[in-house]
UniProtKB/TrEMBL annotation:
SUPFAM superfamilies assigned: Hypothetical protein YjiA, C-terminal domain, P-loop containing nucleoside triphosphate hydrolases
Catalytic activity: GTP + H2O = GDP + phosphate + H(+)
Name used for this protein in its record: GTPase
Pfam families xrefs: cobW (PF02492), CobW_C (PF07683)
Organism: Zestomonas insulae
Length: 323
């Protein structure tokens, strides 16, 4: 009997941003879901410190049916052990949340669900949620890894909003938007937020929703962050072969610097929209619906990366236009 893929949410954020508080809220909320949580020994404080044992992977079922898994080994092993116990009827869960450590890069975590065949079939990556501590964001975002956590996110949750004034909050939101134009920014209050902001995000689905922030941005200053967004647009149809050559060359030379990227493209001679997205060097594409009769055939691509070679990318994208 085929299994429905288990949705996975990756929870990221710098030290002290409130991931554990958010997890407690998620586990205790009235949602009727059976949620498994994977955490590891480097978390600043776990769901319950007593869950952290000496075994490489330890699974504990909570009173409400949720499951906590402490990991002292690699993530892939923990995921497979959870599946084995699920299939054997030892535990039950229908969603998974992975709590990254404060200093962790979420990219390798996400890649895990695209590389291993069994994990691809049994889990589906729903989204990356990153918490940002408003009171300490200026300090945290001096670290490239904190910027990467923001750049990789499908949702940005700002905590400790009450500790900063309106001007500081607006400046932070503009900075976050400059780093990641794709991710909506929401405020989380003491770990509480509408569950729709956490679940069924569908951030890794192949669809035409780019969700680009409409927030206007002032020109970047000389001390701009290493991680940034680049949005490209073209009203001219693209040549599929030139586009493929452009993307292959870009991934070969800069794939490790491309955290997330997504596009909706108009291809010459093709009535359907082409949608694609990727993580580092892994990407997929598919044909979407046909363009509407009065719909502008505009190609839009957003790249989020580490010190992006913007002029090189712009030139390569422009060269992909059909002649």
């Amino acid at each position: 009997m085929p299994h429905l893929p288990i949705p996975v949410t990756v929870l990221s954020g710098f030290l002290g941003a409130g991931k554990t508080t958010l997890l407690r809220y998620l586990l205790e909320a009235e949602h009727g879901l059976r949620i498994a949580v994977i955490e590891n020994e480097f978390a600043e404080s776990g769901i319950d410190s007593q869950l952290l044992g000496e075994q490489p992977v330890e699974v504990v079922t909570l009173a409400n049916g949720c499951v906590c898994c402490s990991i002292h080994g690699d993530l892939e092993r923990a995921l497979l052990i959870l599946l084995e116990r699920l299939d054997n009827g030892e535990i039950a869960f229908d969603r998974l949340v992975i709590e990254c450590t404060g200093l962790a890069d979420p990219a390798p975590v996400a890649q895990t669900f695209f590389v291993d065949e069994e994990l691809r079939e049994r889990y589906i990556l729903d989204g990356v949620i990153t918490l940002v501590d408003a009171a300490h964001a200026d300090i945290h975002l001096q670290q490239a890894i904190a910027q990467a956590q923001v750049g990789f996110a499908d949702r940005l949750l700002v905590s400790k909003r009450d500790l900063v004034d309106a001007a500081q909050f607006d400046a932070l939101c503009e900075r976050l938007t400059r780093i990641n134009r794709r991710a909506p920014i929401r405020v989380v209050e003491h770990g509480c937020i509408d569950l729709s902001e956490l679940l069924d995000v569908r951030g890794f689905n192949l669809n035409a929703d780019l969700a680009l922030s409409p927030r206007p941005l002032t020109p970047a200053n000389p001390a701009a962050d290493r991680i940034s967004s680049l949005v490209l647009r073209s009203e001219q149809p693209l040549d599929i072969d030139r586009l493929s050559e452009f993307m292959n060359q870009l991934l070969e030379q800069h794939g490790r610097a491309l955290l997330r990227y997504k596009g909706v493209l108009s291809i010459a001679g093709e009535p359907r929209r082409l949608v694609f997205q990727g993580v580092l060097k892994l990407y997929g594409f598919d044909w979407d619906r046909e363009w509407g009769v009065d719909e502008p055939h505009e190609s839009v691509v957003v790249f989020i990366g580490d010190e992006l070679p913007e002029e090189e990318i712009r030139a390569g994208f422009a060269a992909a236009a059909a002649q």
